[in-house]
Amino acid sequence: MPKPFVHDYPAIRIAGVTFAYPGSEQPVLKEASLHIRRGSFTAIIGGNGCGKSTLCKLFNGLIPHYYSGDFTGTVEICGVSAENRTVSELSRRVGYVYQDFDNQLVRPTVMDEAHFAPLNYGLPDYRAMGARALDMCGLTHLKDRYIWELSGGQKHLLALAGALSLEPDILVVDEPVSQLDPQHARQVYDVLRQLNQVHEKTVIVIEHHAEFIADYCEEVCLMEQGKVLWQRPVIEALNSLEDLERLGIQPPQVTKAAVQLSAILLNGGMAPGSPQDGHSITDVSSSHAMGLSGYQLKQPYPITAEEAEVYFGKLLHRHGDTPLLLDHPPTDARADDASSADSTVKDTDSDQHRILQGDESERQEEHGALVEFHHAVLRYRTIHKTEHEVLRGIDLRLYEGERIALVGNNGAGKSSLLKLIACIAKPSCGSVSIMGRNTKDVSMEQISVNVAYVFQNPEDMFIEDNVYQEVAYGLKSRRHPEAEDRVHRMLTHFRLQPLKERDARLLSGGQQRRVSLAIGAAMMPQLILLDEPTANLDMSTREELLDTLQELEVHVRTVVIATHDMQLVHEWATRVIVLNQGVVAGDGTVSEIFTDTELISRAGLAPTQMMDLSIRLGVVPATSSPDEFARHMYGILSGKEIHCHAASPQLV
């Protein structure tokens, strides 16, 4: 008889685990070792395909009991070997919320779903267990609602409640915020924090967003090519800039701002070289020219907006008292080598922003609208045989050359609006015209020649046996003369060459996202619609997406992205359309939308960490990039800008 789980042992201990999936020659995990203490809040980070999800499948026995590939090593859960426990037994101790959490919801109502697991185990108090789980997730008031009536955030919380209903000691959540609007994302993490601090659950998250890691987690485990590279406290982990950059993982925006300001100070007021020039954020310690008496900022750098407010606030208050604020760099780092640096401060972000914003009125006069909505309404019938309006009287014009970000909370109607443009759905009332043609008079196949739609769920786009065939399908079915060349270019752009013979359905979530983007981009459409393209992507692949979109501008006349990624909106969009409860609640530039605090709150949005810091410090206008903030701060510290006390309403 196996011994019971021991509570004095670590929550998880993994030693020397190597694992390869059936049919795969290359192992996904390679001598991976990990030690997670009970009651901790741990983030597991790394690039797409590094083995994060596979590692977590060890915790509840899916590996090796369900995925029976080549396995060696030791896994202990609460002091007991997982080898001697079934998936069923381990699931009592390890609750798991998967990346595709929608697939975990199997019952019709919220309460049915909450007590499904304990009922399945034959536990006599299954109703009470389900009710307690709903209460912990703040869903008790929705207990009689049908699953399909819930928003995306509510569904995610319900999947969490389902995992909690068995009262596990350990909770694993794979990408908690990948498909949620910013307000629902915070709500999910607030629940996880309460479960950790109040209910003493060991919480493990797989996460790409450094800002959430900084705000909620205690320690971080970094993975690289199937190995656990290190496990460190969160502030040390997010200041491990060399490792993060090498693996394409972006630190928090406020950390990047401090790094950038330190480099500018050390460079004597000169902005450091861009990554394209061969420099990087980790070049700070080796920057050459003296700046502001040859000082650089003290480390560790801040990782949260709250820490950054104090950090930069002290700098503004007391920058005359240099020794308390700044560190002398090594003598050789302060050597006067200014001739090797650029002679002027590059304002690339501001220039790019002006180019992207352009003059919308001139553009609209020069080009006709590619897409026109005229009082467009979309309804569908519910299970109660009543009609539910998803979109209510949309009037919009989308013009050539625009980069449009479609934002709003879960359930606002973003995906529905994209489907009207792609002719996947037809308006119940009103009209939608694409390049002068009413969508009611054309088929989806006819529209797809000029309009590419990349689905929110990548698997919805997979119909072939391998990645190469998926990307090639649309081109070859239309007998495109440059099909082979274009397929290879897309595989290269999205780092899919090593995966081209793999079945796309068996790839990681981030890899599947890259395949879906390659499928849509390969057609070189005049209008491309992307539904949550950055969900599940590591930050390196996210940057590659932006580069690919820029390259596609030669062929693509207009790009519309429905997204919850506010950083993407700030970096990329020339126009932001805000949907709320099926209507257009806002339409304007990035700065116009994000200065409307009432609209931001009502639409489930949130400022980026950089804008949050700017608001906290009273920077006017609020900066949206770390580089811009760093230059602004240097202007104040060097006396080149008029500035007020840091505690005053604004800094100009």
Automatic annotation (TrEMBL):
Every ABC transporter domain range: 12-250, 371-606
Q: Where in the cell is it found?
A: Cell membrane
What is this entry's stated membrane topology? Peripheral membrane protein
GO molecular function terms here? ATP binding; ATP hydrolysis activity; ATPase-coupled transmembrane transporter activity
Q: Name one GO cellular component term.
A: ATP-binding cassette (ABC) transporter complex
Q: Where is the composition biased (Basic and acidic residues)?
A: 344-353
Classification via InterPro entries = AAA+_ATPase, ABC_transporter-like_ATP-bd, ABC_transporter-like_CS, ABC_transpr_CbiO/EcfA_su, ECF_ABC_transporter_ATP-bd, P-loop_NTPase
Alphabetically ordered keywords of this record: ATP-binding, Cell membrane, Membrane, Nucleotide-binding, Translocase, Transport
Q: Answer whether the UniProt record assigns the keyword Nucleotide-binding to this protein.
A: yes
Instruction: Kindly indicate whether the keyword Transport belongs to this entry.
Output: yes
Region annotation (Disordered) ranges: 327-353
Q: Say which family it is in.
A: Belongs to the ABC transporter superfamily.
Identification of the protein by name: ABC transporter ATP-binding protein
Source organism per entry reads: Paenibacillus lautus (Bacillus lautus)
